[in-house]
Write a structure and sequence with these properties.
Radius of gyration: 17 Å
Strand content: 15-25%
CATH architecture: 3-Layer(aba) Sandwich
Distance between the termini: 29 Å
Structural class: alpha/beta
CATH class: Alpha Beta
Largest sheet: 8 strands, mixed
Number of strands: 8
CATH topology: Rossmann fold
Shape: globular
């Protein structure tokens, strides 16, 4: 039986493991919650403690207003993470979560001289590449829902549930605002390894946009592609977790 531990409103640990040698902090995609990562501990080495990040506007933070600006979001989470960075840690972020984890890494390095042992970025173009498509967070509700359908990240049953969508749309709009108002600030490359994951059928992020993450590290870089669209984090989860396991085990041999 799994007992979820809530350290604070931002961090949920599906399977507490005080003896773990590394903590893996997982950041969700736009509209996603900590539930995305609820079973990951079952497939990762017992030396890894999964710490799922719960962003405002969902899950345990459903009553908190979601952020619309990345810098403010990262600044709010960082002080909460600090007490749990007393052992080696890694970051994993999918899509929006990848950008959050990158900027979190830069903030922790800049302000606290702390850096993860590994940064895992999934389904997110390198931060120095500007978004070319027009913003969607300001669209009318019907147009916004059409874009959500196209992105294929929201279940059909949810999209067709009018009451539920009324609850979700403010958070989804806020998350897309976080992405679409982001401005990259050039800084020296990181000294931690970066591993990037992509979907072979992802129409949102190209191979070249993923490969460009190599510019963000002085350490090892690798790129792995999986079958699936932008949300291969679900469809190819088993294989993705195998890769994560291998990379994390290499850090602690």
């Amino acid at each position: 039986m799994t007992t979820t531990q809530t350290l604070n409103s931002y961090i949920r640990i599906p399977k507490p493991n005080p003896q773990a040698s590394v903590r893996l902090f997982c950041f969700p995609y736009a509209g996603g919650s900590s539930l995305i990562f609820r079973t990951w501990s079952n497939s990762l080495p017992n030396t890894v403690e999964v710490c799922a990040i719960e962003l405002p506007g969902r899950g345990m933070q459903i009553r908190s207003a979601p952020f619309t600006n990345l810098e403010n979001l990262v600044s709010a989470i960082a002080p909460v993470l600090l007490p749990y960075l007393d052992k080696p840690f890694a970051f994993f972020g999918h899509s929006m979560g990848g950008l959050i984890s990158f900027e979190m890494t830069r903030l922790l390095l800049r302000k606290h001289s702390i850096i993860p042992v590994h940064l895992f970025v999934s389904a997110r173009r390198a931060p120095q590449i500007a978004i070319s498509s027009p913003p969607i967070h300001t669209l009318s509700e019907p147009e916004f829902i059409l874009e959500l359908r196209r992105l294929n990240g929201t279940p059909q049953a949810v999209l067709e549930n009018t009451e539920l969508m009324q609850l979700l749309i403010p958070t989804l709009r806020a998350d897309f605002a976080v992405l679409e108002t982001y401005t990259y600030s050039p800084q020296p490359p990181l000294d931690c390894p970066i591993t990037v994951f992509g979907g072979l059928q992802d129409s949102e992020v190209s191979h070249n946009e993923l490969q460009a993450w190599k510019e963000q590290t002085n350490a090892k870089f690798s790129l792995h592609m999986f079958e699936g669209d932008h949300f291969f984090v679900h469809s190819a989860q088993s294989l993705l977790l195998q890769f994560l396991s291998q990379k994390l085990e290499k850090n602690f041999r």
